[in-house]
Amino acid sequence: MPPIFNMFRQKTAATISVHDFQSLFEQFFPSVFRHVYFITQDRATAEDIAQETFIKLYHSCPVSLKNPNAWLTRVATNLAYNYLKGEWRRRGRESGPNLEFTPVTESSEDTVLRKEEAATVRKVLNALQVRDRMGLLLRFSGFSYEEIADVLEIPKSSVGKVLARAQQKFKEGYLKTKGCDS
């Protein structure tokens, strides 16, 4: 690589040692994987996207990485949504307007009810604005207000208000979807 590119890389990204990378990988891979799995609902895809997130960290680590968990979550979220958009487009090209998936095997009543409930929650979450959806997902995944503020790129003092409004919008959407009066 020509020296000019090395100078440019040093200004835009820090090099990360193998030891530091391994430490970050061991510490954060499980939470990144769980987060991506929640978004994609596919174990293999979630694992691939989580690995791609860490490859991005290794190759282009930000110079000032104050909160690696927030950075990794943000990158993983973007990669997951990009993947889902691509899949949606691909399925649209391949199969036309019918995108419904019906399982081949029958399941017990509890499994069906649980899947219906999960689908309803997913539908309501997807109807929310990205910031609201991300805030709720992060909060209920155990992230702190500071980490949520970093990921959403909002002041820490606004996180509580954003989450309260998002919860209210979720509740209203959920009750409307279920056909209940709010």
Structure description:
- There is one protein chain.
- The protein has 182 residues and is mainly α.
- The chain is built from eight helices and two strands, in the order αβααβααααα.
- It folds into two domains: 1-101, Orthogonal Bundle (Rna Polymerase Sigma Factor, Chain: A), CATH 1.10.1740; 102-182, Arc Repressor Mutant, subunit A, CATH 1.10.10.10.
- It is 74% helix and 2% strand.
- Strands 1-2 form a two-stranded antiparallel ribbon.
- The longest helix is centred in the middle third of the chain and has 28 residues, at 68-95.
Provide a concise account of the structure shown.
74% of the residues lie in helices and 2% in strands. The protein is an all-alpha fold and 182 residues long.
Estimate percent helicity. Answer: over 70%
Approximate strand percentage = under 5%
Query: How is the main sheet built?
Result: 2 strands, antiparallel
Q: Determine the mean pLDDT.
A: 81
Query: What is the C-level CATH assignment of the largest domain?
Result: Mainly Alpha
Q: Can you write the helix and strand succession as a string?
A: HEHHEHHHHH
Strand order of the largest sheet: 1-2
Question: End-to-end distance, in Å?
Answer: 62 Å
Radius of gyration: 19 Å
Write down how many β-strands occur, each being a DSSP E stretch of 2 or more residues: 2
